[in-house]
Amino acid sequence: MSGGMDRRRLVVLGAVGAVAMALPGRGLAGRPRPGEAIEGDELPVAEASWWKRLDQGRVECQLCPRGCRVADMERGSCGARENRGGTYVTLVNGAACAVHVDPIEKKPFFHVLPGETALSFATAGCNVECKFCQNWEISQFRPEQVRSWYLPAEALVALARKNGARLTAATYSEPVIFWEYVRDVARAARKQGIRPTVVSNGYIQEKPLREVLPLLTAYKVDLKSFSERFYRELIRGELKPVLKTLEITREVGTWLEIVVLIIPTWNDTDEEARKLARWVKTHLGPDVPVHLTRFHPTYRLTNLPPTPVATLERLWKVARAEGLHFVYLGNVPGHPGENTTCPGCGAVLIRRMGFTVLANRLAKGRCPDCGREIPGVWS
Amino acid sequence: MSRRITRRDLGRLVGAGALAGMASRAVSGGPVRRPGVVGLAPLTAGPGGRLDPVAARTAMAGALVAATGEPTAERAAAALFGPGDTVGIKVNCLAAPRLSPHPELVEALAELIASAGVPPDRILVFERSERELRKAGLPPGTHARFRSVGIERDWEARPAVSGSIGSCYARIVSRRCTALVSFGVVKDHDLAGVSAGLKNWYGVIHNPNKYHDDNCDPFVADVVNHPWIRDKLRLTVLDGVLAQCHGGPAFRADATFDLGLVAASTDPVAADAWAWKVIEAERKRRGMPGLEAEKRPPRFIATAASYGLGVGDPAKVREVRA
Of A68, A138, A282, B194, which is the most buried if we count CB atoms within 10 A? Predict the structure, then answer.
């Protein structure tokens, strides 16, 4: 690290450790250099990639299904895109407000390079408003309202290399709203032999999705419920476009995992779990991992208790009974439901404790006992 | 908030030379309220859109007198504010500098509030960011009669729920100010229909971008209906020297017109209903379709009225001219 570090320089503490960049001092003309804090008006403004002009200086965003029609000087619902004189711009390509080195299991990806780490990053903003958002302090704020650092794609990937991360993960808030950043990081990461991944709500239009999916090693989608009512009332989003995203991802072939946060009284019935599992099996196949995770009260949904573990276990059985091969329990450290078992012979293949891999018996992606191939990205 | 006058207050009022204002507040037991009344005073801009400071003071004084029914501007100010207040004036600077409150009018309002015994360092002119304040000619820092402050990142740590919204409010309204003024402009809004005094309060929540569906209804009303605003809001002032009937919220030269008025009201809903009427009239004069036909009627005004925040029917708004 250089001796010229000051408070404006990036120092982001991660769950696994601290990462820091050692780069020369602040740029000329007041613009931040990579790794420096973004102050005031310095947000990295760049023309957005998915939008069209309307009449009278208005624009239509073509990134997420919301399709915001935005007047001059106004922003889309995400808060991260703005109409500036008839041109739609992104304010967050390179404006990272959270950067951590996380175990890949934390995303969670259970079938992607177990035990490896991902340089995980986010910008401010989100295209929905989940009343139970764990990261609302960045997802529900505008970029200028949170502390951010200027980390363009190449700098971010350099940070991943420096910290020995074999993957990157766009996560925490909602990568759809910084999709240009996701794309640029994915391209830069691939050049360096690093695997790019995304953790998303899947609420995105088809064109931008198809443009970026082939660049990704893995895509995790929060399928928040199987009911439109849930999406309408708790998220201010829609279910149907998310299901479309899942199908496209499967079709393109990018590795896919699904997370369903089980919230008491909202999506914890056997009937909904059965419908969801059947849909996954029919439209995506039985090998797509589905993580049933435990809700904890937060943000605007504080009137409900944490999900009982017994509820998760009940829904796990329902999903397994419907024929899904890889159903996991999340946010229940030490539970056997965290382990990967062979759908052929039932042997435990990967044993986990929370985000830690305790044992990995996979042999070249196969069960060492019966030889069955286990789908995933293992090397 | 209780506005009962104590003997200590009385002493301060006398000391501040604001004795005249005491009477109306002592009688009413709270700041003056005149539901449905909008006070209007004429004012036109000079070359380059600048205002003559003396004319601006006269207009502001006239609008305040007309709005409150008090005999003088000083008594009007004292009927609204007291020496113990910290007064926040939320200016709408989104379309600055061409369509935002004129600094001369802001100065004139601050001068009148000061005449009620409020010291300049407790008259806070504020907007979302320091950048916007600079654009509007109200640079952050200490001015002769007020302080200019950008909210920047100073939000409550937890979201507050009001009706359909869940937002972190700026701490300047939740904690620092005891009295609030909305100082907006008279302009069209592409989604809400009208952006005048009520929608100006979108600037004190952290997530206004989440609340533009359905013509911002009921969201605008919900933002204002939170006690942090509802119970502190004493006055709405609209700079109508220049108004805009289409293409808002940004400035659009071909849609602006010289309205030549300063409006003030103790009824925040009536102020918006009046602005709506003005915008519709100008659109009609130009042969443009009404806001209803354009599918962006400012329904939030009626919603705000249904919450008991004021008079929302433009036909029931009483204009009182200075």
Answer: B194
Q: Is B155 helix (H, G, I), strand (E, B) or coil?
A: strand
Q: Which of B234, B211, B238 is nearest to B310 (CA)?
A: B234
Most distant CA atoms of chain B, gap in Å: 59
Domain ranges of chain B: 37-321
Per-residue confidence band for B22, with pLDDT thresholds at 50, 70 and 90: very low
Q: pLDDT by residue (tens digit) across A161-209?
A: 999 999 999 999 999 999 999 999 999 999 999 999 999 999 999 999 9
pLDDT beyond 70 at B321 = yes
Is the previous residue joined to B249 through a cis bond, with omega within 30 degrees of 0? yes
Average of pLDDT values for B19-26?
38
- ∠ CA A364-A367-A371, nearest 5°, is 90
> Within the 138-197 window of chain A, which residues sit less than 8 Å (CB to CB) from chain B?
140-142, 144-147
- The tens digit of pLDDT for each residue in B224-250 reads 999 999 999 999 999 999 999 999 999
Average pLDDT, chain B: 91
Averaged pLDDT, A44-53: 97
Cis peptide bond prior to B120, omega within 30° of 0: no
Q: Which residues contact A277 (CB under 8 A, 6 or more apart)?
A: A290, A318, A319, A322, A323, A324
Residue B94 CA neighbour count, 13 Å, CB half? 28
- CATH 3.20.20.70 maps onto chain A at 97-335
Q: Where are the alpha helices (DSSP H) in A163-253?
A: 179-191, 206-212, 228-230, 240-252
- Given this model, what pLDDT does residue B20 score? 37
Fold of A97-335: TIM Barrel (3.20.20)
Question: What confidence score (pLDDT) does residue A3 get?
Answer: 35
A323: left (phi over 0), alpha (psi -120 to 50) or beta: left
What is the rounded CA–CA span in Å between residue B95 and residue B74? 31
CA distance B123 to B85: 9
Between the alpha carbon of residue B228 and those of residues B176, B198, B222, B233, the distances in Å are 11, 14, 12, 9
What's the pLDDT band for B29 if we cut at 50, 70, 90? low
* CA closest to A67 among chain B residues: B213
Strands lying side by side in the sheet with A37-38: A37-38, A148-150, A95-96
Question: Across the interface, do B248 and A71 touch by the CB < 8 Å criterion?
Answer: yes
Contact at 8 Å (CB) between A354 and A115?
no
Q: Which CATH superfamily is domain B37-321 in?
A: LarA, N-terminal domain (3.40.50.11440)
- CA-to-CA separations, B45 to A109, A234, B246, B264, B279, in angstroms, rounded: 63, 49, 21, 18, 19
Query: What is the separation of C-alpha A332 from the centre of its chain, rounded to a whole number of angstroms?
Result: 20
What ipTM does this complex have? 0.84
Average pLDDT over chain A reads 92
Chain A residues touching B166 at Cβ < 8 A: 129, 131, 299-300
> How many interchain CB pairs under 8 A, A with B?
66
pTM: 0.87
Are residues B206 and A142, on separate chains, in Cβ contact within 8 Å?
yes
